[in-house]
Amino acid sequence: MVATSSTEQFRDAISAAGLTPPDEIFADGQLHRFSTNGRHDDDSGWYVFYGDGIPAGAFGCWRSGLHMRWCAKADDDMTAAERKAHRQRTKAMQLQREAEQAQVQQQAREVAALAWTAAAPAIDHDYLTRKGINVYGVKRSGRLLLIPMRDISGTLHSLQTIAPDGTKRFQPDGRVKGCYHAIGKPDGLLIVCEGYATGASIHVATGHAVAVAFNAGNLRAVAEALRGKHPALKIIIAADDDARTPGNPGLRKAIEAARAVGGYLTKPDFGNDRQDGATDFNDLHQMVGADAVRACIEAAELVESTPMLEELREVDARPATPEVVLLNGADLEPEPVRWLWPDWLALGKLHILAGAPGQGKTTIALAFAATVTMGGHWPDASRSEAGSILIWSGEDDPADTLLPRLLAAGADRARCYFVGGTRIDGEVQSFDPARDMGALEAQARRIGGIKLLIVDPVVSAVAGDSHKNTEVRRALQPLVDLASRLDAAVLGISHFSKGGAGSDPASRVVGSIAFSAVARVVLVAAKVKGDDDEQDRWILARGKSNIGPDDGGFEYHIEQSEPIPGIRASHIAWGKPVAGSARDLLTESEADTGQGGDSSARAEAKEFLIQLLKDGATPTKHVQAEAKAAGIAWRTVRRASDALGIKKYRLQGAWYWDLPNLAMQLGQDGQRLNGGQVGALRGQHAPSGVVGVEAHAEKSEVF
Q: pTM of this prediction?
């Protein structure tokens, strides 16, 4: 059912986020609480909703930490005034949320204080008995064990409850980050661990003070808070060894905490007889005894010198068990496509610029680059975001070709970077896009502000067969990922394959169709022959776009200039916009310029055959040898023979080619025939005994 009002749309957004929306939504701009799980005693949900002007709001859940914003109108569709008002509202909602969070946590502190005051000392408890630990500053409320959660000033913020079966829960809305439970008093040494049972075992085994951080994610916050209060203390992080959990989060978070405070690191050593489920120092205490716990603590090393770092690296190096990552739509914030050149070049996306040879594709790409470096205007007069550009070219020299063309286009040379090679073991080798993409990204990040990356030709990024769909997709993915991570537009330059005139331009990119499929935008460049009194013109058009309009284009001309005395270079002069699809524009271009059905290669092959066969039938092997010597592809020769109507026949075990209407072909091809040639033509007849060839009709011999 489609929501009919902004209020219903806002309600649907709350529901889509996985929360149970309130029965009634007030559009008064105030923060309201509601149950997010349908229970009457729950009020961890909150929302703020404005119904006037452009309806907008925010909502979330204190328990899960969810926080989302909603607006009835996209940011790009707003006027400047509307956008300003919306941002003011967003700021106001943020302040309300922060104020409410402070109030909620204050209420949680009050509830915790009341519960703690009313609780009785924990003389015994099933959990304590099962874990074999003593009571250290904890209480009991009915069946629940209460662990206080305090900050470094001693303020009680919340409580952790532990049921007899070991189920642990935090108090709703209570603060966790930076809070801990203290066991003992520091005497030059302090140990930080995760759980209460772990801390109790460490304390009874060593006598040292322990800070219980409650979970691995809170280890660093607690360690940093304590380091700030006790800068001279030796801090040991006692890690849980989650060796059977992918990535070992217990050890990983412990290393992170130890590094943050310049601390020491240790973990339980279970030896070769480790039982399933054994991860922490309480498990070691129960399995082996207090001496084993004390030995591990005494063996703690500075985090940067411990062998556990190498152990974790080995964990990272192991082939991980594949785990499919699913994203729920409710967890995503819809985002508009961000454009470097609106509807033509998108940030974070791969583009292809293709065309026949001689269309100025590289010069066009350099015109784009120059526009970016100076924050100039695009052909449609829109202004580009200024930034740096990065070029790898396997075809043109940066010093004598690329930089002069950039300067001719007005580029800021200080923002132009060229890939000169890759240094391996002190030796500079040729850059290999298929191998060196990671090193390229590292350099791009050092530069910063890269907005356009040009790869010429893009086929160089493919180490395998560029005509195989799977290999091309696999090879282009690092380039796609690089565009996303750098937030830059990547433009790959390519050629058109031969033939295919009149077909979809995107399908004519040389190599596998995957080049066009992976790219979000395919641009095409073509030359159109002008009328009798007009100059030829070039056209840049959109051949395909998955993220915007896919038609229209701009005229352009290639001009020469002298950006530096003595240095001449070509540059693009943009003309008026043109309408129509790229397919129509290229069909017109090919029809006018001879790039269509009768291509220049085929015309050359026809001329070759006419000259070769003018003296009569010729053995096929001789035709093949002469074609090879002339550098003409055999496939092109065969197509030209079909166009000329050449007869092929077999005689005495050998095949021959003959052109019976040679006089007509010579006339059509502008050849001047003299009487001797005509006489020779009249005298040409197929040899007797020819298989599968009709006798030449007399009309065919008459010029």
A: 0.45
